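Please think about what follows:
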Amino acid sequence: MIELEGVPELIDPVMVAAFEGWNDAGDAASGAVAHLDREWKGEVFAALDAEDYYDFQVNRPTVWLDNGVRKITWPTTRLSVVRIGGAKPRDLVLVRGIEPSMRWRSFCNELLGFAHELGVEMVVILGALLGDTPHTRPVPVSGVTSDPDLARTMHLEETKYEGPTGIVGVLQEACTHAGVPAVSLWAAVPHYVSQPPNPKATLALLNRLEDLIDVRIPLGELPEDARAWQLGVDQLAAEDSEVAEYVQTLEEARDTADLPEASGDAIAREFERYLRRRDPSADPGPAPGGDATYLRDPSPGRPRPRRSADPEEDPGETPDPPQA
């Protein structure tokens, strides 16, 4: 672990993680964490040692020029902190990286060690899979957990998936065994338009995350990007009669399956989100006094910040919600 000091005492922290690779169809999940990091100006405070977890012939480093000086960026997983202002401020610990090539248990234990020391109250892992879902309908997002109590109190599904899994499933199970509340949010990406980015799926994950942790997330240009993406796919589908017919078949199947969702609960959830976004007092904005600065000294080898005393599924298939 390469550590940077300067992390303050955190307020009700939630860890939000996403990993590029098998669990990230359309880059929807990693795009969501990148959006949070960008909108709230996250500051990296730690990075996992790339040599411990990555095969550089699979995930190659990149060379770039900094004022004429050649530098190398190694594939790894980085942690940053953002502070959400507003009436009830809280912190998010953002974990953004690439699915590791090896030593997954050690990888998860290292992340959980940081979660413990930072006093993280819950871990939310974002994922995306390819599915038989039409691009013209709202993106389905499944919230799953291995914790029966958490499933009941937060209205989530208790995962029943059996089969191959990725780092999202492994990390969630590691959280469960460590006694850390953990939830996975999975967006379904249309398999016939799987190339990244997919801003519509990213937007759907952020909307669900917003409901789950009860914060208002600034969306910036993401809604417009999602509309432009759908319009572009509409145009491509219209140029191929077979694709257009297939999309229509998916639409009919989806509309039939979703009839029960036109319920009072579903309508109430959408109305509550609408009201939150109209309420100026709910604007998180930067923390009082400007953006919190978490980086102080980039020297490696510093001790970890102390904790406050107060306390899948195969991306090419479309079965039941994946292991989380």
User: Anything to note?
Assistant: Confidence is low (pLDDT under 50) at residues 286-321. The chain is about 35% helix and 20% strand. Residues 222-238 form the longest helix (17 residues). Residues 139 and 226 are 11 Å apart (CA to CA).
